[in-house]
Amino acid sequence: MAKTARTAQQKIFIGGYTKSGTTFVGRAFGLFNGVYARGEQDYFRIFAKNMREMVVSYNDNITHVNKEVYDGRGSLKPLAPDDFRDLHDKIFKHIFFANKPVPSDCTTIVEKSPRNIYFVEDIKAIFPEAVNICVYREPKAVFRSMMRHMADHRDPEYMDPNCTLRKNMLTEFFKFWAHYIGVVEKKRQILNVIRYNNAAADHQALLDYIEKDILKHSPGLRAPIETLSKEHYLNSLPDEARAKSLVQTGPYKIKLSTKETTMIERKCRAPNIKFDF
């Protein structure tokens, strides 16, 4: 059976806790021929709920118009589920490819937004053939990366584990981490879960997993595997951006206090699941 416009390209959505390595995994997908990876559009967080409400309102309006304006003989058609999915497909691709046509060689679209993890049911409802991926990283590394981001982009005080801003964020981290782990465990059956440490330690194994278990074919690479390395990424940046990059270490590296480490180990558990990679 021929593919519809909606299923012509495989769709893959990557999510996970912020600073869990979703960008790195998205870049890995982007190495393959025919695979187009982008982020972070937060399409489902921004569009899904609002569009669903608009379609319900539209269909209700059509019902009233057919009954009241056309005396019960109106032939205006409400949006059916497939119409709704096709509409989402058109809007999603329009945004993803910045109002340009879908490239002729595109076989797979990969959208990376950490919050995708909270919308896997919406994703499956709108794009039933889509693959949902969660990237998991251990919580101490996640919190360190978060503090690095906050220190660079919000307030340098986040470098200090004793500052009020950082203490407050740690408290919030415990709450949101528990919710995140609960979602991963509950939605495990419709998720492919990648452990970031495994992906970062063995790039070739990650690409093999993507090719065999996610793409399910061998499209070949458009760029060498070496381009996934931290060094290659940093060397691709201008000097000023390189010095402040969130993947840079050295004087910018965040250190956790003994108290922070103890609390994170005590309050932030790993998901009780089997990882796919």
Q: What does this protein look like?
A:
- It is a single chain.
- With 277 residues, the chain is α/β, with parallel strands linked by helices.
- The protein has a single domain, classed as Rossmann fold.
- Helix content is 49%, strand content 10%.
- The chain contains 11 helices and 5 strands.
- Strands 2-3-1-4-5 form a 5-stranded parallel β-sheet, with helices on both faces.
- The longest helix is centred in the first third of the chain and has 27 residues.
- It is globular, with a radius of gyration of 22 Å.
- The mean pLDDT is 91.
Briefly note the CATH topology name: Rossmann fold
Shape: globular
Terminal-residue CA separation: 32 Å
* CATH class placement: Alpha Beta
Count of helices? 11
Helix content, binned percent: 40-55%
How many individual β-strands? 5
Strand arrangement in the largest pleated sheet: 2-3-1-4-5
Low-confidence stretches: none
Rg from alpha-carbon coordinates:
22 Å
Mean pLDDT: 91
Pattern of helices and strands: EHEHHEHEHHEHHHHH
> How much strand?
5-15%
Oligomeric status of the shown chains? Answer: single chain
CATH architecture: 3-Layer(aba) Sandwich
Number of domains: 1
Largest sheet: 5 strands, parallel
Structural class: alpha/beta
